[in-house]
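Hey, can you fold this?
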Amino acid sequence: FIPSMVFVWFLLLSIPAAVWMNRLGRKRMVQISNVVTLVGMLIPFIDYSFATCMAGFVLLGVGNTILQVSLNPLLTNVVSGERLTSMLTAGQVIKAVSSFFGPFIAAFALGVLGEWRYLFPIFAAITLVSTLWLMFTDIPRETGVSGTSSLGATFSILKDSRILLLFLGIFFVVGVDVGTNTVAPKLLIEREGMSVDQAGFGSSLYFVCRTVGAFIGSFLLAKMSDVTYFRVNILVALAAVCVLFFAESTAFIMVLVGCIGFFCSSIFSVIYSQAMKSRPDKANEISGLMIMGVFGGAVIPPVMGALTDAIGNQTGSIAVIAACMVYLTFCAFRLRKAC
């Protein structure tokens, strides 16, 4: 239930955040997200209870949604279109490294400060530094973006077949990400008889390979076509998923899971940047639509669970991930024709 308090806001707030961004500006919206996150971090530390934890996580979800919608468009104010995908992918690397250090900060708070809840003010302090840094950073005001918009006008952009194609691409690539991270340990438990603790290494390996893939992708995308990179990577990832249906040994499963993480790591950035570059005059609204697609991470895993229950093993989960990959492959080659 707690993760849902964070995730659901991608569905509910992405489009309203894009509408507000047109009126308030991108930099101001990023600062608003930082303030909301700061408050969300402090509430559970000041008064720790179930109710305050729920309130804190709601604010974290709201702040994260606003940040995701506004920060990437803000990047376009200082980065040229040719480098946008590379810089977005580099941002994914920073995000992954930050997530990696989260448990270590919690361990530091418990072991050194004597209470794990001290991670809340630590994260709040980091957010405050980010807020002050951005406040004193001179960023040109966006140009060529309409000052007003509405929910209806934003949703109407989905009538553009290219934008709809990319929106569904975001939906399914996030579903693949969350789904693979979920199924990796379950496969090791089901096929190799591992304990829950041992099988958790499957998720860790996926996470590491995804981070490495994004790091390498940030350099490669600065030198080659976004769509070509998308096409090559999704074909390899699809092949890995297909082989995963038959993989039995621990090493083989781990290699395939690592391949999926590595080759899918930059696809989100490619799809997002393609959407932003296709209609720069509607960049804010498109950002809202694309981030709303992140809700696919909350939809795909339950579908995986339902099909797994129907079949009786994790083949059902792999089939759902494969179906998502097939759409992404279609998206990659459709984009090639459009470019």
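Oh, and this one too while you're at it.
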Amino acid sequence: MKVYYRISNPGKNAGSEKQKISGFDKLKCLQNAILEFGAENITIIADSLTKKFRKQIVELKPPGHSNDIENIPAYDLRIIDVKNGNGSATFRKALDMAIDENGDYDNVYLLEDDFLHKPGARQALIEACDTFEQYCTCYDHEDKYVNKDNGGNPFIENGGEITRVMRTASTHWKITNSTVMTFATKVGRLKLDYDIWQEYSKDKITDSFRAFIALNQRNIGCVSCIPGLSTHCETAWLSPFTDWTSNVWFNSQTVKPLEPARDADYYEKFTNMYQIP
């Protein structure tokens, strides 16, 4: 799975005034994505970065290693610099690159810079893309459990949405009416829906909700795993059932023993890196 990771300077993305979890840091979110998806699979679309922040990304090393330790190499990250100044244009760049660089049956993940993932997220997304061939997210968005009268999703009543629950090899999934602009799918799906993604990213801020409603009208859906294996870092809408504020895959200073992850290779890499017994 190839990841197209959209990143802007700290505090410069849409919604930056919204409260994020304690200790939120875009570099930590990137580090988390690298651990789960692999540096070799990530293309960073870097929008108008300062020299200082770009240098921090270029020099980023595996967690637990100080950047001043010379014998630990930095990740060899692919960075594509753009000067858009808004999330919509950067999303369209990621969309075009995903289509141009991959085949129709390849799985791609278009990812924002304020997400965290738990071990197993990558494997779950691959399973969902291969099984459902629509749009997939590991983010169990809290707005799907807040009634529309209380400021939640317009389609939510009685604390939930009408759906169907399915499963793949490693987790359960539900059909959901929408998600944010972080999702995985097959490249062929992006091509078929290219006009919708263009339409709802033509302004400076993308309109993910209306984009997914337009897809729903074409009988194209989105599935989200339950419980969530990822989260957006805005405190008001965290995926439930995980303490994201103290979780080891965000804050390396609070390392705790982990339960075995779904992806054994990832778990071995993670435990070796943090020296977890």
